[in-house]
Amino acid sequence: MHSRPAYSYRSDPAVPAFADDHALIVFDGECIFCSGWVNFVLRHDSQGRYRFITAQSPLGEALYRHYWLDSRSYETNILIENGVAFLKSEGTLRMAAGLGLPWSLSSAMRIIPRALRDPLYELVARNRYRIAGRRNACFVPTPEHRSRFIA
To answer: Can you give the pLDDT at residue 32?
Structure first.
């Protein structure tokens, strides 16, 4: 897996400028499974730690390309925290850890090598539309949560 230096997107002219003062979750807005995860995070993120953007947005697509990901299949959520991108199982476990107890206990799963965790993540990601379905349009946040989304 390739990695980039922290905040590398700031110097990439293809990535529109955005507020990166909070951790950002980039997700497939057409995926019901992914949208369910976002709703879960919104319900449990009492500190307002995370901001969100759909992968289908211009910024989401630019971030996927910046991190050498396919900007059409969206088979991983991206967590950008302190300017660093975390993908697949690592990103998901870090997201859960940021929600506090009891969700932070999931960090214990990081003792399992990524080489074992990521294939399971990839299996779910490849089958996410079969598991939960697909929206005809991108996820739209409720008015209550609109401020947590980057346009």
So the answer is: 86
How many whole angstroms separate alpha carbon 92 and alpha carbon 69? 17
Burial class (CB in 10 A: 0-12, 13-18, 19+), 63: buried
Torsion 13-19-22-24 (CA) sign: negative
Q: Is the pLDDT of residue 1 over 60?
A: no
Q: What is the mean pLDDT of the chain?
A: 91
Contact of 76 with 91, CB cutoff 8 Å: yes
Please give the full DSSP string across the chain, using - where no structure is assigned: -----TTGGGG-TTS-----SSEEEEE-TTBHHHHHHHHHHHHH-TT--EEEEETTSHHHHHHHHHTT--TTT--S-EEEETTEEEEHHHHHHHHHHTT-TTGGGGGGGGGS-HHHHHHHHHHHHHTHHHHH-B-SS-----GGGGGGB--
For tokens 């349009």, the residue is: 137
CB-based contacts of 7: which residues, under 8 Å, 6+ apart?
A: 20, 83
